[in-house]
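Input (structure):
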């Protein structure tokens, strides 16, 4: 507290710096607030210094997540201050009238998020398993559980052959899959189907077939991942596999079955989330709007942010993203690595952050001292 209080913020002018905070490993460990997270965010709000929360996590709608975060951190957070892994999916208007499959998250939560974003026809791997139990023999014992939250599939295109009558136009992994086997099987079936028609095959027998036939990628569904994290900081004292772990497993299956890029059969995928540029562009736009709202200044006199401090626990996502992001407004993004999450104190982080500190409080104290 002393460090922050001595570093009185220059209040004569609107602060031209702001913060982007990662959540898991910086503010929370799973559902437990980290020490000093509340004090740090409260202090910034008392000084009207703008900040947003930028996470590769998700699984709930932003409105539900901010209510949960406000309660856990005991700080008022609104949706203008939160960017989750799947938040950018809400802007994908061209797919909202298509048949999409949403993968990951707890029970039906991610379908509810997709429908709240405006996606009209959303199916899940659980829906498909309940409709066709034989599609994945190893989750039969979970059928009674799946039946408590899944939905009937959309009406088949051709009632005479329902098994091959569901077309999937795009697959979105919204959050960490809970049943990797089922989800990998169904995604593989969809991506190797004939133009997304479940139950059909574009792969007859092995790689030669694909190579000979010049596997037609066009017209195939695209797979969108929302979070590249191979590891993340949960409640357990060692990092846990994240959505990036599921993607690596799926890529291994894809390569083994199709021969992968060696046979010209590239997995049609888009990977979003930190550290990728589009996610930081989306976050910067949110931060700029939030700063205007916070300072009640909506004209150009406010000027652009000079610097954004990206505070994270994962070098591969938070630090790489903060270091590499190229702001179209000329804003400098400065990465600060904390020792309360994935990064292990005393090891050499790669990539190297602008600064390594103990926790989120130290990060803000150091940043404010830079602004004197
Ligand atoms: O699933 C969440 C995990 O991948 C990391 O989240 O908040 O550290 O970006 P976060
Ligand atoms: Mg983190």
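Output (sequence):
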């Amino acid at each position: 507290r002393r460090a922050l209080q001595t570093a009185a913020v220059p209040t004569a002018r609107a602060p031209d710096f702001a913060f982007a905070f990662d959540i898991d490993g910086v503010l929370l460990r799973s559902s437990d607030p980290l020490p000093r997270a509340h004090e740090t965010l409260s202090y910034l709000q008392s000084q009207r210094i703008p900040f947003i929360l930028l996470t590769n996590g998700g699984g709930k709608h932003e409105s539900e997540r901010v209510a949960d975060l406000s309660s856990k951190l005991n700080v008022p957070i609104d949706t203008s201050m939160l960017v989750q892994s799947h938040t950018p999916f809400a802007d994908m208007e061209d797919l909202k009238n298509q048949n999409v499959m949403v993968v990951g998250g707890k029970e039906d939560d991610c379908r509810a998020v997709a429908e709240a974003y405006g996606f009209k026809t959303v199916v899940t791997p659980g829906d498909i398993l309940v409709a066709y139990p034989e599609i994945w023999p190893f989750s039969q014992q979970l059928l009674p559980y799946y039946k408590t939250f899944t939905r009937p599939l959309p009406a088949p295109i051709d009632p005479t052959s329902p098994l091959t009558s569901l077309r999937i136009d795009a697959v979105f992994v919204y959050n960490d899959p809970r049943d990797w086997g089922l989800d990998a099987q169904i995604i593989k079936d969809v991506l190797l189907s004939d133009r997304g028609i479940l139950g059909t095959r574009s792969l007859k027998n092995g790689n030669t077939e694909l190579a000979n036939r010049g596997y037609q990628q066009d017209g195939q569904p695209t797979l969108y991942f929302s979070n590249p994290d191979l590891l993340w900081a949960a409640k357990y004292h060692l990092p846990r596999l994240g959505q990036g772990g599921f993607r690596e497993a799926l890529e291994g299956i894809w390569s083994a079955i199709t021969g992968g890029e060696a046979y010209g059969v590239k997995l049609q995928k888009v990977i979003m989330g930190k550290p990728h540029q589009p996610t930081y562009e989306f976050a910067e736009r949110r931060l700029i709007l939030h700063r205007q709202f916070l300072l009640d200044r909506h004209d150009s006199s406010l000027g652009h942010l000079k610097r954004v401090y990206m505070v994270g626990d994962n070098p591969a996502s938070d630090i790489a993203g903060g270091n590499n992001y190229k702001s179209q407004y000329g804003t400098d993004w400065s990465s600060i690595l904390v020792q309360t999450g994935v990064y292990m104190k005393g090891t050499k982080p790669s990539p190297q952050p602008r600064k390594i500190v103990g926790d989120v409080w130290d990060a803000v104290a150091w940043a404010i001292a830079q602004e004197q």
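Notes: The first strand starts at residue 17 and ends at 21. The chain has a mean pLDDT of 91.
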